[in-house]
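Pinned message: reference record for Efflux RND transporter periplasmic adaptor subunit
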Amino acid sequence: MKKSKLIIIIIGVLLIGCIGYFIFHKEDNKVELITEKPHYGDIATSVTATGKIQPVDTVAVGTQVSGTIQKVFVDFNSVVKKGQLLAQIDQSLFIAQVQQITANLQLAKNNLGYQQSNFNRQSELYKAGGISRADFETAKNLYDVAKDNVNSVTAQLSSAKKNLSFTNIFSPIDGTVLSRKVSEGQTVAASLNTPTLFSIARDLTKMQVQASVDEADVGNVKAGETATFTVDAFPDDVFKGTVIEVRLQPAISSNVVTYTTIINAPNVDLKLKPGMTANIIIYTNEVKKTLLISAKAIAFQPDSTLGKQYKIRKLFLGNRKGKNKNKHEGNSKSNNKSPDTIDHKKAIVWKKEGDSIIPKHIRIGLDDDINVQVVEGIKEKDEIITGVNALNQSKESKGTNSSPFMPKRGGGGGKR
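Predicted structure (tokens):
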């Protein structure tokens, strides 16, 4: 019996000790508001894409005649001028064809001379009644056939000479040879498709990016918008360009629909090379020197725990007076207003004034997920709440006595 009473007394003492510890060591749960002041800066919404660097204008140089490549005068990366000889096809067969047709033309001209003389004689005899009309018409027909034959062979000779000229491959533009697809001794056949011998870029100081823009983003992309991009060869360099065209033909790969968007980019220092992969950002909307706050301020909502330290004013959700004012509060000194195309939305932020938390109705514009453009509702000097920090300060840290019923932490190097 005495043993059970002793156990009860010990349990009671431990309970009293625990209660006392929690009473005297109760943590003071205080909070600290995280605030910021609106600031002026630039903001933009953007679309990301990938693409390939290509010259603005590339010409594929081919051949219209078949034969064996006899000479090649240029190589990869050669800078060429318009009219410069690039390659030559073996001319022997074409020269022989020209010579043969030239001989045929001479025969046709000789025959024409004979038929003309015969026709003149037959014409005189017919007028004198020496021959029949049938003989006269036969002579006239032979003369006409001889004239047509000369015209036909003349046309054949012109075609043969043209084919001979096609054996010399000239550059159609000023530019740089990107690729050479033939070598000396190689045979090319132009019977069905024109074979490509060289690929020449007109001007490598002017490049373009063929970006693949997702169908979900292409609605915001328009000609004239600014774009920036990087390439793996120069990761620290940011290249600038301008959107010039959004092509309407879609490209479908693995059920993903993209649209080719052409971006012009200057390449004065020739860092950009054809075929490079570009990581592109297209700025669909931009506003310069406008009032900004963090996106966290829009998401912040005070809870009941803040009521112990601050006075929280009630949120009024009715129509605000003067919301159609022409002047934008807080942006009066900025002449850079949002474009008319931007949809201004309503939002609420919370302003700290002393020990009070005050809701402020604002109108916002662009949102890049980091900052938000403020069109009206707050000023640059306002202290806007973006979050809360919890400060847990126990009485033990302030130097209060610890509970005698709790075990003490051993000191470093002390005797036990």
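Pinned by admin. Summary line: The chain has four helices and 20 strands.
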